[in-house]
Automatic annotation (TrEMBL):
SUPFAM superfamilies: UDP-Glycosyltransferase/glycogen phosphorylase. Gene3D superfamilies: Glycogen Phosphorylase B. InterPro entries: Glyco_trans_28_C. Transmembrane segments: none annotated. Pfam families: Glyco_tran_28_C (PF04101). This is Glycosyltransferase. Residues 254-336 form the Glycosyl transferase family 28 C-terminal domain.
Length: 360
């Protein structure tokens, strides 16, 4: 009898939904029946990738964001009571859903309330240490709360590599790990494509919470239009829309690309410009792409990742308020980009998922 696995991504940007795509594919390959719980653009994205999969409605945490990056972290902390209330709702919803749909296991991508006493439940996170603008004491308190919930799950899957050569730095490699931790390696829906010819000078991937998503879009559109003869593709990160435009000569803008088309567009681009969202970083690492990162202002995790990965020589990182496209492209010409390497480990997650499916 086929086992039913429920997969639930966090509704914080699209990265959690997109990084779950390879996990869902592997569960299907292992003969499992997959159900997804999501709403809004996350449900839209996953239904495009998996039109035959049932998507159950489950409200997200609906985090709101400050207009100014300076207050980003403070506004998130103020919403902890709202998150706690959502976690309690998740618990009641999951008990009912397991019974109604005969769920055999749950994979929760960074949603804290989706553990159940009678079935295996996996928690996915690359943030074992949660960065904040306030540093030390706040981060230690949040880590204790984080581990308290992680320890309620059967296992914690970390999408990164163990050891020195990794993408997440201290975020997924703190001094002490939860006892149930397994590293998945890089978790990307993309595959290197041989023989793809160069089509774009720049691929600009727009993502993240509003209003900063739109601000980045406007910055890049304006600055791309100022460079004569440039060939660029802008992907707006709006999977619930379907539009295409040409805002300036040589520049194409689309609302969304499915995984296969975005995979091809990344391979056909000389350089990628994007936020330093963790899923995008895994995609870049797997495809061996050069990139210019623009962390979301005030988002401590992205700011840390941008700085850390530039220090390691993997990518260039520029704060949004200092970003000048031509200057960044000139810098990329001389920057000694270091390849992440480890192609033999890029599919390590498949072994973990297959063993999990076999254990059900």
């Amino acid at each position: 009898m086929q086992k039913k696995v429920l997969v639930v991504p966090l509704d914080w940007g699209l990265g959690h939904a997109t990084r779950d795509i390879p996990l869902i594919r592997e569960l299907l390959n292992a003969g499992c029946v997959v159900l997804i719980a999501a709403e809004g653009k996350h449900a839209a994205l996953l239904s495009r990738e998996f039109p035959a999969i049932t998507i159950l409605p489950l409200p997200g945490y609906n985090i709101t964001y400050s207009k100014k990056g300076l207050f980003f972290g403070l506004k998130i902390l103020k919403q902890i009571p709202k998150i706690w209330k959502a976690v309690r709702h998740e618990q009641a919803w999951l008990r009912k859903t397991v019974q109604e749909h005969g769920i055999n296991a749950v994979i929760s991508d960074n949603r804290f309330g989706l553990y159940h006493p009678d079935i295996p439940c996996i928690f996915i996170s690359h943030q074992l240490l949660i960065k904040t603008p306030f540093g030390g004491v706040t981060e230690r308190i949040l880590q204790r709360i984080n581990y308290k919930y992680i320890n309620k799950y059967s296992a914690c899957w970390v999408p990164d590599f163990p050891g020195e050569y990794n993408l997440s730095g201290v975020l997924a490699h703190p001094a002490a790990l939860p006892n149930n931790t397994t590293y998945l390696g890089c978790l990307s829906r993309f595959e290197p494509l041989p023989g793809v010819s160069r089509k774009y000078d720049v691929l600009a991937l727009i993502s993240g919470p509003e209003p900063q998503r739109t601000r980045l879009e406007n910055i890049l559109k304006a600055q791309l239009a100022e460079i004569p003869g440039i060939k660029a593709l802008i992907v707006s990160g709006k999977p619930d829309q379907a539009s295409e435009a040409a805002p300036a000569p040589g520049i194409t803008q689309v609302s969304h690309l499915n995984a296969a088309d975005l995979n091809a567009a990344m391979q056909a681009s000389d350089i990628v410009i994007s936020r330093s969202g963790y899923t995008t970083l895994m995609d870049l690492a797997k495809l061996g792409k050069k990139a210019i990162l623009i962390p979301t202002p005030g988002q401590s995790e992205q700011e840390y990742l941008g700085k850390h990965l530039m220090q390691e020589g993997y990518f260039i990182s520029v704060p949004q308020h200092k970003f000048k496209l031509q200057k960044a492209l000139d810098q990329a010409q001389s920057f000694p980009f270091r390849s992440f390497g480890r192609p033999e480990d890029m599919n390590a997650y498949k072994i973990v998922v297959r063993k999990f499916a076999e254990s059900l």
